[in-house]
Amino acid sequence: MLLRLSFDAIQCFLYLRQVLCSGSLKRFNSFALKMAAPSPTIASKPLILCVEDNEIYLRPRKAVLEQAGYAVLSASTGTEATEILRDAPVCLVLSDHMLRGTTGTFLAKQMKKIKRDVPIILYSGKPPKTMRNVDGFINKDESVPRFLSLIGDFVKRYHE
User: Fold this and answer.
1) Can you give the pTM of this predicted structure?
2) Which domains does the chain have, with CATH numbers?
3) FRET label pair with 3: which of 20, 97, 114, 136, CA 20 to 30 Å apart?
4) Residue 80 and residue 62: Cα distance in Å, rounded?
5) What pLDDT was estimated at residue 7?
């Protein structure tokens, strides 16, 4: 546990240094206090934002993505997710569709107003009625290798 905390502390320091050096302190206080995930400034790793209101589902998804070489930030609400998207260099949003108080498609609409080019992928048991503002869908029944392959394809498209 101590090793994990010190890694998080280092990542938090790197993020704070980036914010201070860039001069963008507008939303610094609220974001820094809410930040519980590793920093978005991990140099060579693509940064994925996972939006999931159930910690039981979030932990293994985050672990699989991190083990595959991605940096992962997480949000449990739509408000938290939009704040992170606004402040962090996210290259992909992976969101559950049925969130408390909102849906993945509604959240995608809000996020596209912030960063239009960032792919938003819904990860759910069944596709939504509409895919408007959503760039892709991954079924929760997909195998881990297929899941990672699809994520990799979306990340590559973002960087092209």
Assistant:
1) 0.71
2) 38-159 (3.40.50.2300)
3) 20
4) 17
5) 45
